[in-house]
């Protein structure tokens, strides 16, 4: 391939990459700045001017007109002093497609992205919109709106929906909208105020199992709704949405005009650099929570199938359930913060406020060595465990599963990076920059504590190993020695008379 230009721009100010397999090219762009574009790799660096030229095949008369952009030398100079800068527009109709053997990105379990509506925060927002279409549910919606108005920023859509469904009667309203022969009713005189909600919920669950014939694994338990674990409440929302699906299929939902907030115009928007950082923060947090949910689903499958013993499962997953519950709640706060106007958002305070809550990570991360050893020992059983199709990729190789188990530590390292970029490039006022400094310090302290937990676990393992290797302690008891403070090889200078002896 050759590059022909009509505008007199020097070739050294351009960056051109030929098709895969052709070694001829002008300049080199670091891999981090490349984007694949119809079989070509092009730079995405900043530019200062735009020009027109032609791209043609050597030995042919066929030419394709294209636009290219010249880079600013201050931002695009490479280590060899050359500059880069070819960034093509949308392909002309005459442009030939890439060859069939061009590698295409694959959607595997490691890079699977979470949908916009996948988080519990968005699930509850959408559930409230659906419930507004249920005949007779407007009273419950009014109660939710009143509670949200009174609590202000202290309540979020998840808590509001959770409180609503815990009253029990809203669940009965949803089921009764199906117009059953025997509507659900609860005699208030038979139950105290603290139990009447559970009595109404119990009737709803009986109707789902008996009348609607829902499988038992798709119906939540009383404890799922009245407990404090977000995993249980996720199951509640799925069950309620399933009943709403039945209502929609039967045409029993109200037909109302959508509000402006519900309309999706899909208009392209140009984001500021600050908005891009925040968007990256929110999206990657959703992805991370989805990965934890996948790991929890895998944990439940291997435990329920008996693929590995309970002790082995504990050594692998430890406090994964508690970690996921916290991370869902943290994502709720992130989504709530993101819903505010930019002038009200304060991301630094968020990390600083939850600094102590992140201690839930310490035992999980400190357990990584034992986790890795367990995976290696139990790999044959894990690989042949009966898993649903969406989890099969997780046991493709040991590296894949271990990569998932390392994601919590990897996520902790991401927080200070995101906050630092937001502080330096977000165009914020001094007050919020100061709060971001506090947030960065909090995020780094979380990392330090996690590392300290790892080192402490290593020292404990060293003591156990030493205890097993020494046969005769000469009457000493190792449990009276106190905590091991240092473990490793150290050089010691010991004075013996006029000379010093160096020993290890």
Give a written overview of the molecule:
With 504 residues, the protein is mostly helical. Helix content is 48%, strand content 8%. The chain contains 17 helices and seven strands. The chain has helices spanning 73-76, 120-131, 138-151, 157-166, 169-176, 196-210, 222-226, 230-249, 273-305, 310-317, 320-338, 347-353, 361-366, 368-383, 398-405, 407-425, 430-469; strands at 2-5, 34-37, 40-43, 47-56, 63-71, 492-496, 499-503. Strands 1-4-5 form a three-stranded antiparallel sheet. A hairpin with a 2-residue loop joins β2 (34-37) and β3. The longest helix has 40 residues, at 430-469. The radius of gyration is 30 Å and the shape is globular. Residues 1-105 have low confidence and may be disordered.
Short summary of the structure?
The chain has 504 residues and is mainly alpha-helical. It contains 17 helices and seven strands.
What is the fold's blueprint, element by element?
Elements: E1 2-5, E2 34-37, E3 40-43, E4 47-56, E5 63-71, H1 73-76, H2 120-131, H3 138-151, H4 157-166, H5 169-176, H6 196-210, H7 222-226, H8 230-249, H9 273-305, H10 310-317, H11 320-338, H12 347-353, H13 361-366, H14 368-383, H15 398-405, H16 407-425, H17 430-469, E6 492-496, E7 499-503
Helix pairs in contact: 2-8, 3-4, 5-6, 9-11, 9-16, 10-14, 12-17, 14-15, 16-17
